[in-house]
Design a protein that fits this description.
This protein is α+β, with helices and mostly antiparallel strands and about 325 residues long. It contains 10 helices and 9 strands. It has 2 domains: about 120 residues, Arc Repressor Mutant, subunit A; about 160 residues, Aminopeptidase (3-Layer(aba) Sandwich). The strands form 2 sheets. A 7-stranded mixed beta sheet has the order 3-4-5-6-7-9-8, with helices on both faces. A two-stranded antiparallel sheet has the order 1-2. The termini are far apart. InterPro entries: Acyl_CoA_acyltransferase, GNAT_dom, HTH_MarR-typ, NAT_camello-type, WH-like_DNA-bd_sf, WH_DNA-bd_sf.
């Protein structure tokens, strides 16, 4: 048998630490006198009652015999009540009693305080990473247990306009991506940050716009349309510059790039831009396919060193559908 990878070892180590720190090694949990399975049963009933024993067992991933023993103890304690199902006389519906609601309120208070204390030690971005990581890993574990081949990727929302941290985050996405791709460094990052800062001062111009893909409160993609801040031009002279189109790895393969590009081009058409153009680099085949799917065509190609390293730049252009 092959030895596990360092990543697997690290995840297992952190999982054990998480289990211990949350108190699952003890006979009771969450400051109560209840076993972990009983605590989870009360929480699920508080959130989703009425439930049948079978539904509760499926949620808790417990066998029928284990659920029966668990429920018998909670009913005996007076925390859970059973009532006949109005649709099936063979079934009984489970719900919390007044005592059970009081018990689960104390459990929620304990759990919330535990999480809040830990979150105070983390920066906002780290907090979002915790949520996203736990969600993804939990989904993956569940998918493996159920025999699913894959899990559904979370879809970021597309939001228009400035968002705190936008300039730094978009610059960071560009710096990391193009450093790996073509070796761009500090000079490139400075140019991106300066351009974004200058453009942000012109976002109040109705022809200009920026759209952000946001997932778990973090920017994972962006696109901008820049028509400048000049006075009104005749429609035939309006040419929109598509800029800062970038996606984080978390957003790739989710259709987010298509959503961002669609939003930007709809804006171009609405403001009457005769054309929309963008500059990119040769070799970005996936991006080129997306541009061409939206009507862009390669119109120019030239070597350039303006980003600190010589690359082959490409200009793509799309004509307004009504003027093409």
């Amino acid at each position: 048998m092959s030895s596990p990878s360092p990543l697997v070892d690290q995840i297992r180590n952190e999982s054990r630490k998480l289990v211990r720190e949350l108190g699952f090694m003890g006979a009771t949990l969450a400051g109560s006198d209840l076993a972990p399975s009983a605590v989870h049963a009360l929480i699920e009933l508080d959130l989703y009652a009425p439930l049948t024993a079978a539904q509760l067992g499926k949620t808790l991933n417990l066998e029928k015999s284990s659920v029966s023993r668990l429920l018998a103890k909670l009913i005996e304690r007076g925390d859970i009540r059973e009532s006949p199902s109005p649709t099936d006389a063979r079934e009984k519906l489970l719900g919390l009693t007044a005592s059970g609601r009081k018990q689960v309120a104390a459990i929620h208070a304990f759990g919330s305080a535990q999480v809040q204390q830990a979150l105070r030690l983390l920066a906002p971005r780290e907090q979002s990473q915790v949520v996203a990581g736990l969600h993804s890993y939990g989904q993956a574990l569940e998918a493996c247990r159920l025999g699913h081949a894959q899990i559904a990727a979370a879809i970021p929302s597309v939001q228009r306009g400035y968002r705190p941290g936008m300039i730094g985050r978009i610059t960071e996405l560009h710096a990391h991506y193009y450093s790996r791709l073509v070796g761009f460094g500090q000079f490139f990052e400075q140019r991106v940050a300066a351009g974004l800062a200058e453009f942000s001062e012109r976002l109040d111009h109705p022809d200009n716009g920026i759209w952000l893909a946001v997932l778990d409160e973090q920017i994972v993609g962006s696109i901008a349309i820049d028509l400048g801040d000049a006075p009104e031009h005749p429609q035939a002279d309006k040419s929109a510059h598509l800029r800062w189109f970038i996606l984080d790895e978390a957003a790739r393969g989710t259709g987010t790039g298509r959503l961002l590009l669609k939003a930007a081009l709809e804006h171009c058409d609405q403001v009457g831009a005769a054309s929309c153009y963008l500059w990119t680099f040769s070799g970005l085949d996936a991006a080129r396919h997306l541009y061409e799917a939206f009507g862009f065509r390669l119109v120019a190609e030239q070597p350039a060193a303006q980003w600190g390293k010589t690359v082959l730049e490409q200009k793509f252009e799309r004509r307004h559908p009504g003027l093409a």
